[in-house]
Queue: 3 jobs
Job 1
Amino acid sequence: MPSAAYTPTDRTVPTRAAHKASYDKELVHAILDEGYVCHLGFVRDGAPVVLPTLYGRVGERLYVHGSTGSRPLRTAGKADPGPGDPGPGLAVCLTVTHVDGLVLARSAFHHSVNYRSVVVHGTARQVTDPEEKRLALDALVDHVVPGRSRDTRPANAKESAATAVIRLDLEEVSAKVRTGGVNDEPEDLALPHWAGVVPLRKGYGTPVPDPALAPGTEAPGYLPGLSG
Amino acid sequence: MPSAAYTPTDRTVPTRAAHKASYDKELVHAILDEGYVCHLGFVRDGAPVVLPTLYGRVGERLYVHGSTGSRPLRTAGKADPGPGDPGPGLAVCLTVTHVDGLVLARSAFHHSVNYRSVVVHGTARQVTDPEEKRLALDALVDHVVPGRSRDTRPANAKESAATAVIRLDLEEVSAKVRTGGVNDEPEDLALPHWAGVVPLRKGYGTPVPDPALAPGTEAPGYLPGLSG
């Protein structure tokens, strides 16, 4: 039984390699949940801008945060505009990419990488509801290290006021996945060049405690990298 | 003696955390040369699009390739337009990001990541000179695995015709770097929460040879992951 899927649109159906595209919600969520850095694109003065930033997912909503003084977040307006505040939002494209392997073919042309990516198109709007904002900030911290938000001092009023959170609903979404081995031309198979896939590994180094750690503070069990 | 630098412009000077910005060419080149996947942003029908793609650097030029049928590459026009071909190019923003560590502060607000990124603004144009195109394709392969391009079957005429290469000159460029430890507020230092930096590690798994490898083909010395 297929899981729920996003509805494809003109801009989520690729012009090529359409067989690599997927709209499966479970797959999209899994790719998003494995990461915490996205590349957020928006248009400024008619030109594209792409910035790396942290994100978090809560259900079918993505959250990105930043200083209330930053240009894209100011432009994004408010999530729940009142009568006097139309809150047009900010057109964005949010992309998350994991590179899983290097695909070395005998021919230069068929070199590739194995990857999984998600591209989200939509309109980002500022979150103004305090409870939603709190949950969004927790989600941002927990995306980086699951379980971490419960073991921190939460944002106080001043910090919360200085932080803008924008929301992007998961509606116009696609995933793209390349897996597997080398796709060389049949006539190239006898060539003497090595061909195959080099898997990529991600991991953690040993955590480096802050020198000013309060005496007796133990490394918590949720910390990545503890086993070396 | 400081090395050469790019000239800052309105859009390469950040509105905040300007102390993290750098225009140093050596630093920019080092960040670009450590990667091979960028996030390329452009504007389509007034909305931003951000796609992951491979890139290569040759001096002060970046190259990105793709199918001649892809929308952004078609739009990019030609690098050396003739009288009948104005070749307007495609406004792009090309961003490369390396995440080096997770910064876990006592306060949720001061959580961060250590990273190095480069953002390039400019106009991408199609490369039409055959020799430049050949060098660009070599650079793309060698960015993924240094030395690899010499050990492949080069693109033939048909493959070359099917591949569009666009060039983006390194002119309007900035790097942004966050390094170091936790920046908690003085009044939070005594809190019982663990704080510190978790370094991120990238590495390679053992290469998986193509099952149809020609008999006697040894793994070449330039292959990453050979030592496990």
Note: The beta strands of chain B are 21-22, 37-44, 47-58, 61-67, 90-104, 112-126, 163-169, 172-178, 196-204, 208-209.
Job 2
Amino acid sequence: MTLNEQQLAEIAAARAQTATTSRPTVPALETLLFEAMPVLDHGFVRVVDYMGDDAAIVQAARVSYGRGTRRVQEDAGLIRYLMRHRHSTPFEMCEIKYHVKLPIFVARQWIRHRTANVNEYSARYSILDREFYLPAPQHLAAQSVSNRQGRGEVLGTEDAARVLDLLRGDAMQTYDHYAEMLNEDESGAPRDPDRPGLARELARMNLTLNTYTQWYWKTDLHNLLHFLSLRADAHAQYEIRVYAEAMMQTVAAWVPLAYQAFRDYRLGAVTLSAQMLDVVRRMISGEAVVQPDSGLSKREWTELLGVLGREA
Amino acid sequence: MTLNEQQLAEIAAARAQTATTSRPTVPALETLLFEAMPVLDHGFVRVVDYMGDDAAIVQAARVSYGRGTRRVQEDAGLIRYLMRHRHSTPFEMCEIKYHVKLPIFVARQWIRHRTANVNEYSARYSILDREFYLPAPQHLAAQSVSNRQGRGEVLGTEDAARVLDLLRGDAMQTYDHYAEMLNEDESGAPRDPDRPGLARELARMNLTLNTYTQWYWKTDLHNLLHFLSLRADAHAQYEIRVYAEAMMQTVAAWVPLAYQAFRDYRLGAVTLSAQMLDVVRRMISGEAVVQPDSGLSKREWTELLGVLGREA
Amino acid sequence: MTLNEQQLAEIAAARAQTATTSRPTVPALETLLFEAMPVLDHGFVRVVDYMGDDAAIVQAARVSYGRGTRRVQEDAGLIRYLMRHRHSTPFEMCEIKYHVKLPIFVARQWIRHRTANVNEYSARYSILDREFYLPAPQHLAAQSVSNRQGRGEVLGTEDAARVLDLLRGDAMQTYDHYAEMLNEDESGAPRDPDRPGLARELARMNLTLNTYTQWYWKTDLHNLLHFLSLRADAHAQYEIRVYAEAMMQTVAAWVPLAYQAFRDYRLGAVTLSAQMLDVVRRMISGEAVVQPDSGLSKREWTELLGVLGREA
Amino acid sequence: MTLNEQQLAEIAAARAQTATTSRPTVPALETLLFEAMPVLDHGFVRVVDYMGDDAAIVQAARVSYGRGTRRVQEDAGLIRYLMRHRHSTPFEMCEIKYHVKLPIFVARQWIRHRTANVNEYSARYSILDREFYLPAPQHLAAQSVSNRQGRGEVLGTEDAARVLDLLRGDAMQTYDHYAEMLNEDESGAPRDPDRPGLARELARMNLTLNTYTQWYWKTDLHNLLHFLSLRADAHAQYEIRVYAEAMMQTVAAWVPLAYQAFRDYRLGAVTLSAQMLDVVRRMISGEAVVQPDSGLSKREWTELLGVLGREA
């Protein structure tokens, strides 16, 4: 992560500025507020604002006049009930806003989550920084042979070095050509006064997809948890999963009751189809079920054994 | 508006509870926080939480590290530019949450605004209060003859009294039958122990559409302004317009720069079609345009003269 | 269901009108097109248009140039895979439009599903018909004692008759007063020429929540299946469940492969929390787990035994 | 535009396949169906399905049992009224689905329109083609000096040639390295059997933003018109505007009445702020208004004169 002095000063200034409010306030999240949590080689996630807390979920579910909370035990029970039965609207009553710096190819996955508000740094209007993602060698892996959208074996030292050389070289070269086409120095004046600069909206097309961009991203807790259930999952691409994992920490600090319910009933949960459930019932009755008479395809059978922690 | 003692005490307690935060805080809105602003005979609107301020709009538009603001003058100019050119995403970065008590027929109009989060008091789960909207006599009007979805002349004293008798009588009778079918006292015990109570989810169907309901309603500033542009408009039904007007006050306190830009460029603005613009240009050139050679239909011609403040 | 002659003639005319198209067309759904499927005493659901078919799901998942389908077997496998792994976007590529007539209290539940397009008959603009829902006696039930938002025992004959008298009497009286306040005959002329009619937007507030309304409702297959998973569920209120069940038939005719996958992986599926899964694994290993050492609350333990079809 | 033989054959097959339907059908759009309309150097837009027509807008606005249409004249009047007064829900009742091939930097702008359904070709799962956008020389322009997000003068021959050399060279080199890292031939077998291929989800990060991607994109008519009002506008970037212009043709063929209303009341319309309207009224009254006493900022004054077609 590379924040320059001015950025660090602005963050420090925002942290130093305090006010008194009657709104629900979460001290554990206040301590994280504005801080950039490093992700990948140059990226970060930082919470820039939030609305609501665990009690706000309870308050909305009860349509209360006051804070809505009773005893912590009772609130926890209600939140767990709401999570278990997928009553999503009370969770929509909490909102959070992040500032995220991320490679463009990650941003393209992320933006597919439509129920959010986004302001992205505009490369039509401004000039992007010379920063691009280069995977750490241990994250350079071969195409998976079993999963068409996954990774397999980590590359050997030499193969990894060759890949990194290509990625680094191309990112540097395309960025340098981008800068050359723009022909602007930091003040906006032409570097070479004898030729015009290419419009920013055109020059940007020369950048590679590992170039970093940044945005403000705001969403409600229900949609955030949905995002995290997909992106903090083991099947998510590593480069977006690390962002999701950083955000998990902010959720744990912000709404600890909802976070625990989410871990128990969503992240750690499994869904069994009607046929799978039937197999499970037979197994519990002591029957030795085998795939051919399970009613499951081979693929589903393997998935079920995996869920049950049994050898295939 | 009828808040009972417990509700008032809960509101007072919420107001009394303060905390220190580094989040953007708006003192003018803090003074309104949690207070129920009366609307209609038993309704209210109250702000229960908010996120962001004018500076947050600027911050998102600039994708800043700090608060993003420069001089007030510059911020105002940017906000006005964004409003004028309908750059809506920075306004989505502010969020507000209301608790609203409103007649069901108003709630049915309101809920058509889909980009919001809602938790409504459940008449499937709980029992509704014996409160229904009865218009003040000056708001009882005849069907408009010119506008199929509007009101015309205010009713005379006698006609108004007759209408109010019908509305009051039917609302009281249907509520009493609702209570009779439910057969529950305040503790939930049967009032008449010799017969069963009807399920709440069924009994509610006997209530009239002026019965009050309530909900938590949360939305972002962009969608709120869109709601207000439609519902604070002179063509909106009076019974929803008064809610919009109360909310306008909260927006003025919350984001004064955005509010003024909204008044100038949205609420007070007019849209001219290509043909209308052509007529305006001819008029400015001193031409005495008349409807038959205006290229406008009679209806549009009348609309245009209205906009220009000229006699038909 | 009460369609008048003109309505029946209009439906027949729409059915008779045919055209040639290159769009995906589903003969089984064409036979249902425009027909009103009766629901409750005066309601109906009818399909008025649709876009896409099972192959369109496959086509979008593959981003194909042509129809995208290979062998039926392969398409079914892909659709089942997408459903099992909650890849929802290909299902969004099919769209369906319904015309629904339904009681207002059902409409209020239904409208909470926001990802849909709706045009409702406007009681601000037009006059509602004198039609209201009266439950059949076997659907009049007492409040459930175990479930705060459910029904328990069916009412006895006498109790049911008393409830129906109240519901019918109040609905008829409030409608008659609505008509009296409106003071319009069918041609729009005043019934009593000596007094003004009350504006429609006001008079409607006197109607009860079992009055029928109607709307056009359009959504995509993903959101429709989500709607059906909640509303065709045993926990849904009977009066909306019957609409969901009628719509299930239209889905079965329209996209039979997606429908079967939905039945297997969504409707008939169960979700086990991390703790529940642990209990299941222990049971399969032959352990006799009891609630106190299960890690589950009593409520969750009961839910799990229910899922597994075992005695509590 | 480069479609290979198999793609052309698939399109031809889809066009040849016809069926009889009772759904609303638009012959003018049927003739365009499936055809790829070329956009930019390798892109296209093609309509792959649609639902509804002009009459469906009328039908929904009237909540009709049949097709809802009366005389064409009356339908046109209603559609124009709905468009003028921004009654958007009836336009949501028509739906259209496109298959689009477009450069990634254009896709990144486009995806910001959230109210749509999208399935994009997955570079995590599949390998992208070796196709990238190279602007025609007359579209290579310098950065605008007056507009931070626009283009100014077209580059001279030599400067354009230099830019194209850079763009072409970098795109080819980065693609070749992408292919080298993947190390797969067309059958998926390794090109160089002595080293592993890099996972597709990683290798793609080396591609430049002018690489072509493709997607299925489906939206309703209201949201499509909103998209077109922004993207067919003169201020939109050329590279997305040409897609919008191609789509305008499909709208003209599909819903000619709505299209004409859109041109008159949206595309060709202007919005005047309260202050601008005041100036226009004074001008029509013959007053010679000058900026300092107009109540407008210099920027707004210039905008107004532009709208009125007058010299600054």
Note: Residues 146 and 152 of chain A are 8 Å apart (CA to CA).
Job 3
Amino acid sequence: MPIIVQKYGGTSVADADKIKNVARRIIRTRDAGNQVVVVVSAMGHTTDELVDLAYQVAEKPAHRELDVLLSTGEVVTTTLLAMALHAMGCPAISLSGAQAGIRTDAAFSRARILEVNSARVVKELEKGSVVIVAGFQGITADMDTTTLGRGGSDTTAVALAASLGAAVCQIYTDVEGVHSADPRLVPEARPLAEIGYEEMLEMASYGAKVVHPRAVELGELFNIPILVASSFNDNPGTLIHGGVSMEVRNKVSSVAHDLDVAKITVVGVPDRPGIAAAIFVPLAEAGISVDTIVQNASITNVTDLTFTVTRSQLDKAMEVVAPIARSIGARECATDSSLGKVSIIGTGMQNTPGYAARMFGALSQAKINIQLITTSEIRITCIIEEARVEEAVRALHQAFEIEVQEK
Amino acid sequence: MPIIVQKYGGTSVADADKIKNVARRIIRTRDAGNQVVVVVSAMGHTTDELVDLAYQVAEKPAHRELDVLLSTGEVVTTTLLAMALHAMGCPAISLSGAQAGIRTDAAFSRARILEVNSARVVKELEKGSVVIVAGFQGITADMDTTTLGRGGSDTTAVALAASLGAAVCQIYTDVEGVHSADPRLVPEARPLAEIGYEEMLEMASYGAKVVHPRAVELGELFNIPILVASSFNDNPGTLIHGGVSMEVRNKVSSVAHDLDVAKITVVGVPDRPGIAAAIFVPLAEAGISVDTIVQNASITNVTDLTFTVTRSQLDKAMEVVAPIARSIGARECATDSSLGKVSIIGTGMQNTPGYAARMFGALSQAKINIQLITTSEIRITCIIEEARVEEAVRALHQAFEIEVQEK
């Protein structure tokens, strides 16, 4: 009997009625002849409320304690869902991350899964039960509870699917699937029937809101197809997988964007080896996540080095970079904190000419100035004024509409 | 360094400020040169809210799932208290029942502690940490979470104290200690400085509201002194222990009462062996808890057999008893559901004459009719009209005032 792993996010289990709705969906999947493993998040805003409580008693709660605290939210949901299934006549059992064998390192609040020992899950499946596992949590070798950080429940679901050899990992959420662009910005954006793992990973912040990149990476690694769909209707959703057909792979599949971009330009950097390391190693040590990096090739002996960070990290980044810039003899550091990012994404894009030209053309026609350009194998990104991002996304979505529609 | 186990109930940890107050009390105990292990209940009404949630999704939630659900309440408190201690510069670590080695049987929702493996607790104490343990919960051999039922957190505390060889188990709550009578009924009731285990056990429902009898029994078994005191002030509270001095042991220590008493009298029972078993075995099998049992010695061949149950179990008890009464040839079954119970308690009471006479005299003076009388080694109980219980408690408290004061 095939195994299906389903994951339901916080909004899908926000109250008793929504939990019953999820129970009915699970029973339908089981009645169709599948063994079902379910991973759940904490109900609604539970996690935020627990975090609030923690900050009421301590300014800097220890990560170990915060992890134990937050892990209770998912446990609550597992038990309620098991009860709802029982009430509908379906055998079910709740398991904590520890009971489900989610073994992690001891990096509290951002633990990585080391191993999934799914013996207990398998045992319960063999008894005929639906197995409900608390997402977002695991256990260390010392039997301490950990949480997996951002995207934790998605990651739990895909890791379990990989460990169990599941046919598919279904991520149920409050959106219809992955769209060709963020539907809040582009009303005409349509859900994609399928998308490749890498394209999904390139969708940046919009994509991460749908399924966390960690889970997508894990899916790619173990070749687990991931279906993203709404828990509130029966629309087909989007299948993220590796088998996307060649024709589709050559198309632009989506337009991604990010509104939270700040830029630092170190102007007049001496063009010699070791300069990039001198800047980016200290930034990494300070815990600052650098996104885009662009360095213009120099024909003189000096060059400009530009990189982007999130707006909230700009000041901290400048504290690190300004003294370094002085010590390496750069002319100045310039910042701009009102930027955004817009990208077109499609596997194999670089093998097909003309995409970049069309992208720049569409932005030019909309009179949107491009500040920085970076590209990857499957993505072309422009950094532009934040105020123009929405317009840019719509313009690009329209410019590449034909391809999107053909999917 | 002596080990002290402290237990804080739900009202003592109901919000962030109360948790900080508890943290300060713990630090004072630690600064006085003790190793401190703390057992906590769920915050305020958390448990009730979780039970509500369960009944929103299922009419009859499975005990296994209910136990996992409820166990999260205590875990939340442990982490918040650990964070509050950290914020005050005190090393502390939270442990679940499982981590603290509370091994139980698999009787979900009313599990019994089989063993306490306190290795982890000892390890953390040796590191200099305050160890905070989630009360009310344990783990089975199959690694399933259980709850201990009523009095669970008190029982966890005393069991840990026994396992660790603690000097004392301190139960902090929202009352000042054990009083000579229920202070809500007898305003002049005063807190007792000390009381024996058995007297405490005889205090029935009032005593059980202060410390659960399971915990008192366990304390007696392992000879762990139990201090009951308020977490909101520094009053000394009441020490429950086995070393109460001989003089004190001969006094009436308290007046207990119970307002929830219903009586069934099987009238005209043939006086032959096996009759009591024929009635009480089926009652036990039906899960009905019988309290007082009185059978008048018969001089004819028939006798009356009277017993009491809680009011809510009266109908169910009658369903069991009525057909049995017919089959054994009893004349009839009579019930009275508006009764109450009043007792005087004092160790060694039966070795000192006159107590019963003074009790009956005091009730007679107050014109209170006695329906049933039962006695034990350390207790004399009268069943009376419910409406007169309050008056009876006050009359008895006054009649035995001298003894109480001498303590």
Note: Residues 200 and 243 of chain B are 13 Å apart (CA to CA).
